[in-house]
Amino acid sequence: MAEAEKNNQERAVSIDPATIELLAVAKEEGHTTAFSRAEAMKPCPIGRAGSCCYVCYMGPCRMVGKSYDTMTGICGATPQTISARNVTRASTAGASAHSDHGRDVVMTVLAVAKGEAPGYELKDLDKLMRVAGYMNIDTVGKTKEQVAEECALEALANWGRQTGELTYLSRAPKKRQEIWRKKGIAPRGIDREIVETLHRTTIGTDQDPKSLLMNALKVSLVDGWGGAMLATDFTDILFGTPKPIHSRSNLGVLREDEVNVVVHGHEPTLSNMIVDACLDPELIEYAKSKGAKGINIAGLCCTANEILMRRGVPSAGSFLEQELAILTGTVDAMVVDVQCIMEALQGLSEKLHTKLITTSSKARVAGAMHLQFDEHHAWDVAKQVVKTAIDNYPNRKRIKMPTKNDMGNMVAGFSHEYVEYMQGGRFRKSFRPLNDAIMDGRIMGVVGIIGCTNPRVPEDEAHNYLVKKFIENDILVVQTGCGAIASAKYGLLTPEAIEYAGPGLREVCEAVGIPPVLHMGSCVDNSRILTVMTAMVEEGGLGDDISDLPVVGMAPEWMSEKAVCIACYFVASGAYVICGVDSPVGDSKIVTGLIDNFWEEEVGGKLHFIVDKEQMYEKAVEHIKAKRKALKIKEYERGKFHKEKVLLDMAARRALEAGQGGSQMPHKLF
Ligand code: SF4
Ligand code: MSK
Question: Does the pLDDT of residue 656 top 60, yes or no?
């Protein structure tokens, strides 16, 4: 095969040159990867489009063929019930994953408060006090440990609550809260809604697609305004609220001459401790005694995002780079916690030299080494992990680092607190400048581009295309999860990305001192985007609900049930959401219509699955322009805004603050 043709074929699966190189290595050495397995295994068209029901053992029942509209399962279930039930179950599974993660973080804060988790501390006391405020906890005369304990107990009550509402629903705009109550989708307790939705989706229970779909929204809210939001807040209390920090992303962050420890999964509790262990002088000396120059730590997926935005630890890549990192032959230990961990890692690790170490009893991998994480003994576990990696360093078999490893520089860590701070300083922090910029047409709107990478579509291509296209057209982009890493690899999370930005967005970014694409964290940190949208509503001028805002949520390369849940809670919060790849309800015109029109009538948000990236862009812009029109704000016209208007005199504001000290936030980036 001619080299150019071979390259074109490889290029079709990813736009990342380092990934393409490693895929060639896999092919040459006869290893499979998610990319090659996706190529070899075509998806079942029935299940993929939501038409296979396997919730009982009379089935599975497949709705397929010319009689699709009139056929039923053995129990009589219609194609639309099956389709709605499948997507509701996906939303439930996603909610369970994020919420269970959130519970573990809260449990760690509780252990710290009780003095039972040596090595951890309550790092962000401002955040602790803010959380106490959200929870109406009186802090007067109490120690930080007492406040933390009360906050943790109140948070934990959200999981077991049987009646009433989740604590954080009160953080949403008032109008949104009323919609949830009126429509009967204000969640009571996290576990209760998850259990009830699993129940209602068993055979012979809820058989009304509309009822099922409303419950897909209800259960998703326990994630967005429950488990995920609590995970974000309690992680901030424990490890600090993120603020901009420089780092890099690409497989090239792995080092040939150092012990490489890669942390992968979602939870921040052990990975933070492993970062400390990698800095431990004794362990560094031990690594040197084995011939390594030092110890290098890198992340994958959302565990990466957690330590990236707080500690600057580089990311080796997104979901699809996990096998490729091992293929470099340089990963001495890959430490995994929960979610998005491919089972294929163990087989590949056995062929090369990597030690795959599982650390959660919830996510065991047959054949992998297991070191059970326990927040009460976290430092010991972390040291053991790093020592295992060091001991494995001399066992490397061969090294195949990508040569095209221009490491994407990035600035990560734009928490909603920081975004607010950037717009007015410590004493006048607000969302006014952003709202004003939208109202006077400098910025057309805001798009959140989140979610996974998926080997069913060219890796990073849609992310990359959409991010550039939006900022070019004066739309501010906020990102989380693997979507953020997909942008980081190509330098789109840097101040320099401003060169792609349209004139209005450019002016705002320069005035405020932010890049045009903001990294806001991991998957659970989509809750930060909910908080930003609420702040924009409360700031005034852009309506009185999230559904009024000229904003869109997107997951162009999604693959996980968690992405379905995130899409649902953005819809339930009033947003328009577009997911790429394909539609999990694609066969059912009725359900496709319900998640569009019915959801919009009920809660003001809607969900579209759109395969073509240009069409995703066009639909998003169409929605943003329609919302602008409904708000009766200035029509967006590229470059035509009131130039004489001064956005904000940041220099003057900061000058005011100078010398007053105490701000934890750094000054403007550029
Ligand atoms: Fe078939 Fe009904 Fe059982 Fe589903 S619940 S597998 S449609 S019989
Ligand atoms: S890790 S859920 S692949 S974003 Fe949060 Fe990435 Fe999607 Fe997993």
Answer: no
Residue 454, amino acid: N
Residues with CB under 6 A from ligand 1: 53-56, 58-61, 73-75, 77, 82, 203
Please tell me the predicted confidence (pLDDT) of residue 407.
Answer: 67
Measured in degrees and rounded to the nearest 5, phi and psi for residue 246 equal -85, 140
| Rounded CA separation 316/297 (Å) | 10
Q: Write the pLDDT tens digit of every residue in 291-350.
A: 999 999 999 999 989 999 999 999 999 999 999 999 999 999 999 999 999 999 999 999
Give the span between the Cα atoms of 333 and 357, in whole angstroms. Answer: 7
Per-residue pLDDT reduced to its tens digit, 537-556: 999 999 999 999 999 999 99
C-alpha closest to that of 505 among 496, 515, 494, 493: 515
Residue range 381-413, pLDDT digits in tens: 999 999 999 999 999 999 999 997 776 789 999
The confidence score (pLDDT) of residue 375 equals: 87
Q: How far, in Å, CA of 393 to CA of 595, rounded?
A: 51
- Report which of 513, 527, 522, 530 is spatially closest to residue 446, judged by C-alpha positions: 530
pLDDT of 654 reads 53
At 261 the pLDDT is 97
Residue 351: strand, helix, or coil: helix
Are 599 and 571 in contact, with CB atoms under 8 Å apart? yes
For residues 447 and 555, the answer to whether their CB atoms sit within 8 Å is no
Taking only the tens place, the pLDDT of each residue in 507-539 is 999 988 899 999 999 999 999 999 999 999 999
484 contacts 477 by C-beta, under 8 angstroms:
no
* Closest-approaching ligand to the CA atom of 267: 2
Does 251-395 match 71-239 at the fold level?
A: no
* Ligand 2 binding pocket mutation candidate from 271, 452, 565, 579 (most atoms within 8 A of CB): 452
- Which residues have a Cβ under 8 Å from the Cβ of 286 and sit 6 or more positions away? 387, 390
Please tell me the distance between residue 61's alpha carbon and the centre of ligand 1 in angstroms.
6
Assigned CATH topology for domain 71-239: Substrate Binding Domain Of Dnak; Chain:A; Domain 2 (1.20.1270)
Residues 6+ apart with CB under 8 A from 83: 50, 51, 209, 585, 587, 588, 590, 591
Place of tokens 């919830």: 362
The residue type of 143 is: T
Query: Ligand 2 centroid vs 539 CA: distance in angstroms?
Result: 31
CATH architecture observed for domain 408-644: 3-Layer(aba) Sandwich (3.40)
Domain ranges, ordered by start, for the chain: 2-47, 71-239, 251-395, 408-644
pLDDT tens for each residue of 270-286: 999 999 999 999 999 99
251-395: CATH topology:
Rossmann fold (3.40.50)
> Residue 563's pLDDT is what?
97
Instruction: Give residue for tokens 């993929």.
Output: 48
Q: Which of 91, 235, 302, 460 to mutate to test the pocket of ligand 2 (most atoms within 8 A of CB)?
A: 302
The pLDDT of residue 486: 95
Q: Which residue has the tokens 């105490």?
A: 662
> Which DSSP letter does residue 52 get?
E
Predicted local distance difference test score (pLDDT) of residue 663: 35
> For residues 221-245, b (16+ Cβ closer than 10 Å) or e, as one string?
bbbbbbbbbbbbbbbbbbbbbbbbb
Kindly report the three-state secondary structure assignment for every residue of 399-461. CCCCCCCCCEEEEECCCHHHHHHHCCCCCCCCCHHHHHHHHCCCCCEEEEECCCCCCCCCECH
Query: How confident is the model over 414-440, as a mean pLDDT?
Result: 86
* Ligand of minimum distance to the alpha carbon of 58: 1
